[in-house]
Amino acid sequence: DPGTLRGLTRWCRAKKVVLSAGHSRATQEQAEKAFDSGFTGVTHAWNAMNFHQRAPGLLGGALGRKDVYLELIIDQAHVHRTVLRWTRSLHSRCCFVSDCVPAAQTREGTWHSFGENLQIRFDGQVCRLSEGALAGGGRLLGQSYGQWLQDEARDLQVPLERLLRQTVSALTREPLRALGLSPAVLRKRRVFWEISRSAGAVPRPIPELTRSVHAR
Predict the structure, then answer these.
(1) Which of 91, 114, 151, 175 has the fewest CB atoms lying closer than 10 Å?
(2) CA 129 from chain center: how many Å?
């Protein structure tokens, strides 16, 4: 209903609520109307949304729009690395997220409650339901990004430090901009990225450091 949509976006703008569409079977036309009305993001791009070459759906309405941010779960399990690469090349405003759920980074094989009736476990990479279905992210955002960085640098045959400098804004500045916040808040929250051949890229939050990237 166009009237309901306009009323919703008007109320959200007044309350400074950011609207994002995700896990949706919306058509491309429906998605475009939502973005034209004030939606500014896509949550968990590629996950639980229809896409076909003749009916591109929500992503068809979002890709290429400079006023829309795409969230990409960077653990390489929710979205294949090739699709992550395609999306980044097609869309200039991407945010890396973890989709972590309660069982993330817990001891493998132990079960944790997720809502009222769901039990999930961490399998070393992601969190799963008892029947094996994907239930959410399992690694912290810095860990997932560091692993992706190492794998992508190897595939593209580029230095880790160069790729980090090209992509780290999707982890830091772009999520803030997507929420309508200034990246200036990062000036007092520097992160030290330690890069090595053996461990890949590992984030170290050390506020007193003056450099944001260090390679060895």
Answers:
(1) 151
(2) 21
